[in-house]
Every structure is written in C-alpha cells, then in structure tokens.
Amino acid sequence: MTPARGDHEARRSEVSEGVWRVLSTRGFEGLTLRAVAAELGASTGLLTHYFPNKKALLSHALEELDRRSGARPRRAAPADGSAPPPAGMARLRAALLDVLPLDEPARAGNRIWVGSWDVALADPDLAAAHAGRYGRSREAITAHLAEARRLGEVPGECDPVELAAAAQAFVLGLVVQALFAPAEFPAERQIALVDGFLAGIASA
C-alpha cells in the first residue's frame, strides 16, 4: 500500500531534521547515510528511498542549509510601523550584518556554510548550485546599491554590479577571519569593519 502523501511529507521532514542534526554536530565531513540513519534510529535502506547516493544526500543538505538560512530572522524596522522599512544603504548594512557570525547561532550556521565549500568544489553540479546561491545574493545586494544610488547615498557614477561583487567578497572574507580568529574579530569589530566599508563606498 502506498503511504499517504501527508505521511510521506512528514517522514521527509523528519529525515531533513536528522540531516540537519548531523550537519550541526559533525559538519559535512561527517554527513553520511549511515550517520543520518543512526541519528534517526532507522536503517540505511529507509534513507535510500530519499537519497539513492551520497551526492543526493549532500545536495539535500545544501538545500536544507539554504532554506534554514533564508528562514531565520533578519534585521529590519519594527513591525509596528513606528519606523519605515530600511532602504538603500541601511538595507544593505542590515543584509551584510545578517551574513556575519555575530552570535552563536550565526557562528554555527557559518561554520556549516564554510564547511560546505569543500564539498561543493569537489562536484560540478554542487558547485553550480552554490554559484547560483551566491549569484542570487549578489543580485539582492545590487538592488540595494541601485536604490542607494537613486537616493543619492552613493555617487551616481558608481556601478552597483561591481560594488555588489566587492561587498560580497568583503563580507565572506570577514566571515572566514571571524571564524578562525574569533577573539580578534568579536561582533563589535565585525560591525565596525562593515560600517567602515560602507562609508568608503559612500565617499568613493
């Protein structure tokens, strides 16, 4: 008898939670079908229904990481409408700060992201998926910079596309430094560096 769709979706959600718990505790290097099965108290045979091979498991893990990153709370104006939603440079600042490991949950998520780079680079399909994710992020940053230029917050001759590439490179580099040397890059310094970077753009 074929399981009802609701049962299938519930089981898939449970499997996704198991994948996430393994990722959180062991990283991508410890993510295997056997490890996920042990986390769920299930057989590897059950998991092959969802992931026929290691690549499928890794692909799902990257999608789950992307989904959770997109679902976490973001910096924004108060929900009661007491302040207008951020735009231009204010929105860009919030977006860049959202990337950084400023607290423990963000540090944990960033450790998983950085750990995923090695996995993605080893496979052309996974690498292309990662490139797409970072491309979409640059598009969002480009939109914030275009709005900032419209508002007169950055010089009119600035190229939002090139500035977006520079901003993404800057913030990802800062992520790596903060993960490897947290004592040298506490949250306050990370924020100050972002503010200095944005000030440089505004006065370019």
What is shown here, in short?
This protein is mainly alpha-helical and 204 residues long.
Q: How is the topology of this model organized?
A:
Elements: H1 5-26, H2 33-40, H3 44-47, H4 54-71, H5 88-99, H6 104-121, H7 124-150, H8 160-180, H9 187-202
Describe this structure in words.
- It is a single chain.
- By secondary structure, the protein is mainly α.
- The protein is built from nine helices and no strands.
- It has helices at 5-26, 33-40, 44-47, 54-71, 88-99, 104-121, 124-150, 160-180, 187-202.
- Helix 5 (88-99) runs antiparallel to helix 9 (187-202), helix 6 (104-121) packs across helix 7 (124-150) and helix 8 (160-180) packs antiparallel against helix 9.
- Mean pLDDT is 86; it is low at 1-5.
Give the key terms.
single chain, 204 residues, mainly alpha, 9 helices, disordered N terminus
Pattern of helices and strands: HHHHHHHHH
- Mean pLDDT value: 86
Shape: elongated
Share of helical residues: over 70%
Backbone structural class: mainly alpha
Task: Enumerate how many helices there are, as a single number.
Answer: 9
How many E-type strands?
A: 0
Which stretches of 5+ consecutive residues score pLDDT under 50? Answer: 1-5
Query: What is the rounded Rg?
Result: 20 Å
Strand percentage lies at: under 5%
End-to-end distance:
66 Å
> How would you sum up the major sheet?
none
